[in-house]
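User: I'm curious whether this sequence folds into something compact or stays loose and floppy. Could you predict its structure so I can see for myself?
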Amino acid sequence: MPNQRARRLPRAAAAASSDTMMVYELAKRSHDGLVVRLLRDPLRDQVVLRYRDLRNGEVFAARVPNERALDAFHHPNAYRLACSTADA
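Assistant: Here's the prediction. I'll summarize afterward.
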């Protein structure tokens, strides 16, 4: 994908390691204080949706089935129940 950007992000604290993993940003959109990002970890074959509302500070992140990634990107609130609150 042409707009795919690789970012090095620290592993989860549970990993207790200084290693990093490669995560690709598949898509990002922002409008009226809402920021939605779709990230993919190819090593784990996992897609993560990240949502941030800059107006009230609300954030959430949710693992999304690969086949539902585009749907999650366009309708992030539908995936809110399957989420864990995290820094988005």
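Summary: Residues 9-18 have pLDDT under 50 and may be disordered. The radius of gyration is 13 Å.
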